[in-house]
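Hello again, I could really use a second opinion on something today. I've been staring at a protein lately and its backbone has me curious. Can you walk me through what the tokens say about the fold? Take your time with it, there's no hurry, and the full record follows here:
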Amino acid sequence: MVVYVIATTSFILFVGGYFRLLLFAFRMPSMKANKVAGRIIKINKGNNIIGLLIQYLSSIIEKRIILSEGKKLKIESYIKYSENENLSANAYEADKLARVVFIASIGILLLKIIPVASIITFIMAFVYYFRADSSLEAVYTKKKQEIEYELPRFCATINQEIKNTTDVIDILTRYAKGTDKTLRKELFITIADMKSSNYEAALVRFESRVSLGSLSDIVRGLIGVIRGDDMRTYFEMLSHDLDELELQRLEDRAAKQPDKIKKYQFLILSAMIIMYMAVIALYLFSMDRSMLM
């Protein structure tokens, strides 16, 4: 027991000293100095040593990282729906690599002290590297689904509005104010873009940002409205088609529910069988003991 306490204390002191050496090597301010500066000029609020190190490593990596144009566009399209929407693709990739390097450096420290923990740390770094992108992509997919599910209502609203007005900005503004979903953000970006540039070009950029087939159809209709075409029949048919797609989506979702229920039914049945077998085993065991006695 004493050996474990000594080893743990030594490890904590060693890690603390390691962080101090890193701060000294990278010429970074101490936590105390950072807190004082934060109180005076209101920056770095809530940062800790780990955050500062990762931030510094990220700034170094960002200057040296080179991404292909395809990967950069892909990451930027994912980032815009995440919490860090203001990050560039290079900054995101640098931050991810900095965290991986930091986790791996802890594994190197543990290599001589606790080899098993070192292996676990390296695995964590490996998993984080691949999970970071998949998590970002999952958020992106979810946000796009939210927009896709909102499109039938959006199209139905446009279908009603164009019977009374052809002011596309007014239609989009009123709809954006009445929704609190992901589409709201994209609509406000598009409205601002339309006010500062060509209407049709702004709608085309809106279409390319979201990149959904149903939205492309809606944008095509809105461009027709801007050009002065009578798009009432077009939007009536499109609204009907989107309602059909929404109904089909709900039916598909309902069809998947029995499979989920079957899974839980199988688990319950398995638990009942295990309990039944355990009771029989205990009964036979007690019978054998009574016969031996």
Remarks:
- Confidence is low (pLDDT under 50) at residues 26-46.
